[in-house]
Amino acid sequence: MRITNILALIGARNKEFYRDRGTLMWNLAFPLLLILGFAFAFGYGGQAMFKVGYIAPDTSNKQAIQPLLDTKYIDFVEYSVDQKASALKKLQHHKMDMLIQSNSQQTQPLQYWVNTSSPKGYTLENIVKGTLAKPAEKQTVEGNEIRYVDWVLPGVLGMNMMFSCLFGVGYSLVRYRKNGVLKRLQATPVRPLEFILAQVVSRMLLVVSVSSVLFIGTWQLLGLTMLGNWLLLFTVLITGAFCLISLALAICARLSSEELAGGLLNLFSWPMMFLSELWFSLEGASPILQQIAQALPLTHIVSSARAIMTEGADLASVAPSLITLIIMTMIFLLIAATSFRWSEQG
């Protein structure tokens, strides 16, 4: 493997991209306008709906709060005892308005947590007092509200990165093969591995640069929340981009039809659009749907970035997602390397 060959291919691919001014401006302008639109629409308030979490160790405990669960216009989400810390963190960030726990011993009072700075929590506290026959013991937490624009930013950047990686790499590879560019490269000392690595590095440089500019720009412009480590967020960005580029290479390693490539790329991208929590949370959705979402690379990218930004997550917290992305990348690269062909005939 020759480094000079890889560098030459990287330079050629980068020049091809930045000379296409329309594509370059679209990659920068579209996500920026989308984020600004969300900031204008949702920056100063969320949806007018109460969300209450409850912890009931068994059926008898759940019956104690059943009158409250029957209340209309309140979205109830059940948590296990082990998920209590996670639920309290959501309450701190105003992602939930109240948390109620029914104790295992019937003689003990119910406990409920409200955020002292949440107007909805205050309203729900009065609803709880008027609904439950059994007295409840009040607990409080404190925390700053995470606006919808803070929450949705990782999703918008993840969506832009996904389309840039999948369609930018996939279509280019198919076009090269269809136009005979790869066939001409086959007559040079360039090896398939060198070509694949050049495509990966070139697109990664582009995606990381564009995403960094967009994030820093919106962070300064809108005063977005960033509680975690910048280096860790950058690591998630690079790992995620590497995984998505590898997926594009695996899909289009043998294709020579742009129509077929477009269909397959859409087949992989649209499930990630709806199931990777780009625009809305899957909390409370079907467990099967949540398991399917965990098999999508964009889910791990967005959830890790969101945890770092809004919750201050450390390396140990996002390590499972990073490991999953690395394993997926290795599988995709193996598929791409073994099925790659230079021309339409083989």
Share of helical residues: 55-70%
Write down the secondary-structure element order: HHEHHEHEEHEHHHHHHHH
How does the major sheet shape up?
5 strands, mixed
As for the number of domains, it is 2
Give the strand order of the largest sheet, numbering strands 1, 2, ... along the chain: 2-1-3-4-5
Terminal CA distance reads 22 Å
Q: In total, how many beta strands?
A: 5
Mass-distribution shape: elongated
How much beta, percentage-wise? 5-15%
> What is the gyration radius calculated from CA atoms?
24 Å
User: How does the helix and strand content classify structurally?
Assistant: alpha/beta
Number of helices: 14
- Give the overall average pLDDT: 80
Runs with pLDDT <50, length 5+? none
Defining traits:
single chain, 346 residues, alpha/beta, D-Maltodextrin-Binding Protein, domain 2, 5-stranded mixed β-sheet, 14 helices, 5 strands
Describe the protein.
The chain has helices spanning 3-18, 21-42, 59-64, 66-69, 84-92, 119-131, 148-178, 181-186, 192-222, 230-252, 258-275, 287-294, 297-311, 315-339; strands at 50-55, 74-79, 98-101, 110-115, 136-141. α1 (3-18) packs across α9, α2 (21-42) runs parallel beside α9 and α13 runs antiparallel to α14 (315-339). The longest helix has 31 residues, at 148-178. A 5-stranded mixed sheet has the order 2-1-3-4-5, with helices on both faces. The protein folds into 2 domains: 3-41 and 147-339; 50-141, D-Maltodextrin-Binding Protein, domain 2 (3-Layer(aba) Sandwich), CATH 3.40.190. The chain is α/β, with parallel strands linked by helices. It is found in: Membrane. Residues 117-343 form the ABC transmembrane type-2 domain. The chain crosses the membrane at residues 24-44, 151-174, 195-218, 230-252, 264-282, 318-340. InterPro entries: ABC-2_transporter, ABC2_TM, ABC2_TM_bact-type.
